[in-house]
Structures
1.
Amino acid sequence: MKTALEQIKLQAISALESCHDIKELDDIRVKFLGKKGELTGILKMMGKLTAEERPAMGQLANEVRELIESSVASKLQSLKAEAMEAKLSSERIDVTMPGTKPTLGKPHPLTMVMDEIKEIFLGMGFSVESGPEVELDYYNFEALNIPKDHPARDTQDTFYINENIVLRTQTSPVQIRVMEKTEPPIRIIAPGRVYRSDAVDATHSPLFHQIEGLVVDKGVTMADLKGTLEIFVKQLYGEDAVVRFRPHHFPFTEPSAEVDVMCFSCGGKGCRLCKGEGWIEILGCGMVHPKVLQNCGIDPEVYSGFAFGLGLERVVMRRFNIDDLRLFFENDLRFLDQF
């Protein structure tokens, strides 16, 4: 047994000296010290020794075990240090070399123009309000003077959640919610996403963005509406922009108008961009209908107001001469990198 123990010690030391891998080291540990290892096998033979031989052999076996365990621990520490040194050497960088420039994101063209429009109206004393996109039928239609049997509902192509809840078709419900809880004077814009059941093509999408505005105060007139929108258009398109108002009809405003800007491509002569008309429609507007004010608890005999709404995608398409609305939602970097 003594000879066997000495042989195990020599074999273990030799194996450890030639070991260069942590996995290999663990295999050596199991081979000599594991439950089925060589040292364990020798110790199972202790029962065959005489009472006089056992103490000496037990002491020798313990010395061999301790030697192998300490040698394994020392070798493990050495291998870990070598591995760390190799990793540090392979990952060493020259801090004097120029770094790789990261690709930075930029505002989406819709966000860019949305922020610009917000700044224009903030500069005129408006505040920005928001509201839920899943809206009650009352706020989306009825409070805006569009009852359930009104023909205007047929043109809205509404997504209904149930009979009384819809995906908002416009941001006008925000105006109603603000008028219900705020005493005039009121001067707000309400930007946000809206939804209509339209087939997707170059000029239509079931999801798009609107920016609507509202002013309510004593003595507000159509002249105030006209002046505000002229300032907005000139800020957006330049001081040379020419604006015209055309009579129109909206259930929630009376009188109502649509606003056109003279085509900045042809100067009103007619071209492909303006479809030969010389003018490009950009928004609808009008004086807030007295019944709408009344629905919100505002006395139409004391207060008056105006409202307007524009489609963000339409403005951005004309700003950058984009002819396909789908480009805004496809996240094609070849398109987005141009902005």
2.
Amino acid sequence: AAGPDRAAGDPPLTARDVELVRAGLAAVEPVADRATAHFYALLFLRHPELRSFFPAAMDAHRDRLFRTLLAVVREIDQPVALRATLAGLGRSHRRYGTLTGHYVVVEECLVQTLARYAGGGWGAEAEQAWRRAYRMISSTMVEAAEEDARTSPPWWQGEIVRHERRTRDVAAITVRPDQAYPFRAGQYAALETPWWPRVWRHYSFACAPRPDGLLTFHVKAVQAGWVSNALVHRAVPGDVLRLGPAAGSMTVDHAAGPDLLCLGGGTGIAPIRALVEEAVEHGAPGRRVEVFYGARRVEELYELDGLRELAARHPWLTVSPVLSGGGPAGGPLPGGGSAGGLLTGELPEVVGRFGPWTGREAVLSGPPAMVRQGVGVLLRTGVPAERIRHDPVGDPAAW
């Protein structure tokens, strides 16, 4: 297989190639909806056998295609980051049934789409730059997929064994995979339900690896969220899901390193809970973990009692609930217990009040706006950029 820096027979990308690739994508961005619709129309007209690889409704998939292209092109001159992104995409494409030969098909449809929508800047030089870039991208993805296939299946079957409604719109779903499922606390997996075939959505693990092999996810039903609404309001024990491989780099080395600062908003508390569980099992003596858990309303702090129970048993753990939606700072929690002692304000702002956080390692999980704001606050309050980890801002996608 070709290496990650170039495809077989192609020279490495030059600075001019990078410039042309970025210019072409910038020219297409204002008409991205039409361009991606055209791309898929070409793909399905010329290769109708590929239509079954995709969901019936393509709107969300078209949007994610362009966001993925933007993410890849943004990193195209950053080899380490690009390799990680492309390797993850290559592994995830296995669950769609993607074969090596499909990449050539996609290349032709992509180039013809760019030629139509990239405007006056498109020409032979730009086309060659895009072809070299695409072949570098596809060779890295193929290499990662082939390596992954040597040790892992393309997907797992997982039976729901427990379905607990934690609030009106949030469910904790526990799944038993059909074979050993490797993952780390802080990672996430793509799930497919039987009700929406070929529609995959990403959910973080809400537990650390367990001796019984069970996996738990927290799912919030969102407006127009096909998968989330099915999982919260329709799924029952006995239903079988498909799971893609674990992904994501929001993991922590608990045996070493500085004290840990965690920000979890809404169901973003799920991977934070998993990291705390992992710290209980593997944490280094003397390493402190401080959790700020935010929600708009008291009833949405569904995991607070469980975190407080852990904090009562482990002095190195501190849990601070934060309420941003106004209302009383007390009252009952969804599962019982008290929500007294709440801090008030937007979660990142509250964390900023308690700074500086110099010397800490930080993880953030929650709504994209919270994550973006939180990263800015942490940088301003002394956390180095290389010590900040967070969920992907947006949905990692397939082409």
3.
Amino acid sequence: MRELVLLCPEERAEALSDALLESGMLSVSVEDADSNTEAERALFGEPGFEPDVQAWDRNRVVALMPDGLDPAQVIEELREAGLGDYGDGEWLLRDVPDEDWVRLTQSQFPPIQVAGRIWIVPSWHRDSPDVPPVSNVAGVDEALHIELDPGLAFGTGSHPTTHLCLAWLERHIKGHETVLDYGCGSGILAIAAKMLGAESITAVDIDEQAVQSTRHNASVNGVQVQAMLPDALAEGQFQIVVANILSNPLKVLAPMLANRVAPGGRLTLSGVLERQAEEVAQAYAPWLQLKVWQEREGWVCLHGQRAL
């Protein structure tokens, strides 16, 4: 297998990538051609949102070629499309060593320990000797394994905000609570809450695929979670409400989420950068006081308790 490597300016990077995929390439990646030099430039954007600039000043576009595809023909098609007059020496081919790609991909997702007892364990590490013995029984002082495979990018448990929420749940769930996980994604928080001893779990997401992902992951882990779209959420309040989204939607959702917390219940929010914490807390101030519980890698977990 080989890779076709080309250089292009910022304004052509996206169109060139699309054209290469249409030509039959298996995958295309765009890299900073000036990386590891004084001209290297970072692209910034708030997590969850695209940066304003989509490419670097000079880009290295790397396309993985299937066997049988003629690179010279691809280059000619790019010329005809006005995407670059690539002459001899302005593009190159390089061999890609044979790999066990499945094994290589799986090696990038090892078991993750979050909060004292909680482990996120991909299915291929289920019997790994590196993971403590499993006990999915609340109250037993052994590891809780949440089996979660990387899939539709709804959350694999590796992000600091997920770690913060899981640590909060482990610290505060005492048993038999009702829990609402709003913005459930993969369902990891809902599943953890149930394993930690909560009585009933409701998981909500605006994305139907996320709802299906939560249902699937709950089934794999042998726990019962009611997952649904927002319109299907019945009236009622919960002893614990957790939402790991982003600051802007959290502010918009403040009236709804705050009023879903039962008197004496707790609200926990993450997906909030440290510099955004005060602004988010102010949005919830009419209903309850939020404070930073913990910080990790620039992200915070906010929590508060509603008055009786």
